TrEMBL record:
GO terms for biological process: tRNA modification. It comes from the Bacteria. InterPro entries: Ferritin-like, Ferritin-like_SF, tRNA-Hydrxlase_MiaE. GO terms for molecular function: tRNA 2-(methylsulfanyl)-N(6)-isopentenyladenosine(37) hydroxylase activity. This is tRNA-(Ms[2]io[6]A)-hydroxylase. Transmembrane segments: none annotated.
Length: 206
């Protein structure tokens, strides 16, 4: 198996500065949606475990991933409670749903594509934690930086499993999802979410 790409080589673009500005203007939504994202990540891992019971490597990696994501969920909730932020329902961003529209419906292609989507979600999450950290208060900076190692490993786990499931190079599929992911990250959104695009035009300086 060839060496996995570095996270920043995997993503085609950086998060725009205008998204960071929006995050700082919506601190409560940032934490609430972050909690939702951690819960959804755990659910995705568990769903894969139930669907592909014959794949031992997947079962082990997804079991560990689900536990870690639920732990992160608990940590976000604890921070929210300390800050008097109520955990409430939020409509999801279009990000994950639009990526999943590219997932093929026959196996093993369905599994391969689902794992590629997981890799992009984890990679972008890691990139955004790192982007945000310098601008946050001490508690959140420390927390977000603490997530980088696990989120980076989750990206690598998803991509490794995708390569194993395909049994052949997946460069073309990764490139397809990468272009879609870049478009979603740079496209304007009308409401802020952890995986939303910017709320204002992306400039050359972004």
């Amino acid at each position: 198996m060839k060496q996995l790409p570095e996270l920043k080589d995997f993503l085609l673009c950086e998060t725009p500065a205008s998204w960071v500005s929006a995050a700082l203007q919506h601190p409560e939504v940032l934490l609430i949606d972050h909690a939702h994202c951690e819960k959804k990540a755990a659910a995705t891992a568990l769903n894969l475990m139930f669907r592909y019971v014959d794949k031992v490597d997947l079962l082990n990696k997804m079991s560990r991933l689900a536990r870690e994501e639920l732990r992160h969920f608990e940590q976000v909730l604890a921070i929210m409670v300390k800050r008097g932020i109520e955990y409430s329902h939020l409509s999801p961003s279009r990000y994950a749903g639009e990526l999943r529209k590219l997932v093929r419906t026959h196996e093993p292609a369905r599994l391969v594509d689902t794992l590629i989507v997981g890799a992009f979600i984890e990679a972008r999450s890691c990139e955004r934690f790192e982007k945000l950290a310098p601008y946050l208060d001490e508690e959140l900076t420390k927390f977000y930086l603490s997530l980088l190692k696990s989120e980076s490993r989750h990206f690598q786990d998803y991509l490794t499993l995708a390569i194993e499931a395909a049994g052949e190079p997946i460069d073309e599929r990764v490139a397809l999802f990468a272009e879609k992911e870049q478009a979603l990250v740079l496209a304007l959104d009308d409401e802020f979410r952890f995986h939303s695009g910017p709320l204002e035009a992306v400039t050359a300086e972004s």
